[in-house]
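Example record

One chain of 201 residues, shown exactly as stored in the release files.
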Amino acid sequence: MTLGEKLKQYRLNKGFSQEKVAERIGVSRQAVTKWENNQTTPSVDNLIALSSLYDVPLEELAGTKNKVSPKENIILRTNLTLLAIIFQMVALNACVNPTPPEGDISIPFFLFFKLPFLFLFSIWMAWNLHYEKDKEQLRKNIRIELLYCTVMMSVALFVFYSKLYFLGNILFIAVCLFYIFVINPKYMNRTLVKRKSKRKQ
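Predicted structure tokens for this chain:
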């Protein structure tokens, strides 16, 4: 039985409509429909909320009982994805900020210390996209992440040429937080931070 079939069966067992489930966990009815049709997969937070709503153990709902391994640890994957995004932002910010003392060591320091870290964290961030199993969503996520990297690079170029480093720090953080809190859960089917779910007693 697929996850979508399980979700539909548990919902029917409780006598809930899709609208009721959507209201209880704070998502749209279309999201519930897609989960039950196996078009998309609920995020970690939504799986936990569904588990509580249907009174079903999370392991049973996700089908991981007695089969848990590091590769199947979705909480660990979420944290690693979040860390990759943050580290990539920090590395990009470090690349455009001056390295004291200024002088002949600046270029070698950039080439052999700053740039490799930016490259590694960018590869790590891109590699995390492979966790998305839905091919259509994966293609969408790749386009969104390329757009995000383009925006961050534009900020980096602005900071480098304007020398407005403090403003640049704020811009880097703002774009990164918007990507994590808004773009990922709304468009990429990835909830990277725990949110408070609306529950009715």
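Notes: Confidence is low (pLDDT under 50) at residues 65-71, 197-201.
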